[in-house]
């Protein structure tokens, strides 16, 4: 009986050890499951961090695109301002040429007036020498006045024609500038 009791106690101890080992294995499995859950949570956090980094990179790319678009718009505005300045310079050059032409016409009128004065003095002297020659001189003066009037009319027509040509050139230049601006904007949109 004593031996049987000893064997029973030994079996009980063996069962206790087996139960302890089973509990230890269960605890280890639970710890491993917890470690795996933690690893999964870490992977999830890393994935979310990477997603956030990618979203931030995309936002930065969008900001850069917007900055580039703003720079392109500023370049277009600067180009348009330069074209407008060039048109202003062209108009000023044309006005200067017109002033020079007007100055030349005024000088020519002064020279013609001087010549007419000289002719008038000659005619007056001729009248003093002979009344017949005086009548001829009167006819000459009338003819000279008609010639002067004709020259003035021709000069007025030439000035009107010059103004019309200048206006036509300016309109053509404006159309060409508008066309160039449209092409440049189209190119800018294509680049964008």
Q: Helix count, per DSSP?
A: 2
Radius of gyration: 54 Å
Return residue spans where pLDDT drops below 50 for at least 5 consecutive residues: none
Distance between the termini: 101 Å
Backbone structural class: mainly alpha
This entry's quaternary arrangement is single chain
Order of helices and strands: HH
For the biggest sheet, the summary is:
none
Protein name: R domain-containing protein
Biased composition (Basic and acidic residues): 1-15, 25-121, 154-174, 182-192
Biased composition (Basic residues): 122-132
Region (Disordered): 1-192
Describe the structure.
The chain is an all-alpha fold. It folds into 2 domains: about 1-50; about 90-190. It contains 2 helices and no strands. The chain has helices at about 1-130, 130-190. α1 runs antiparallel to α2. It starts with a helix and ends with a helix. The model has no long low-confidence stretch (mean pLDDT about 90). It comes from Chiloscyllium punctatum (Brownbanded bambooshark). This is R domain-containing protein.
Summarize the structure.
It comes from Chiloscyllium punctatum (Brownbanded bambooshark). The chain has two helices and no strands.
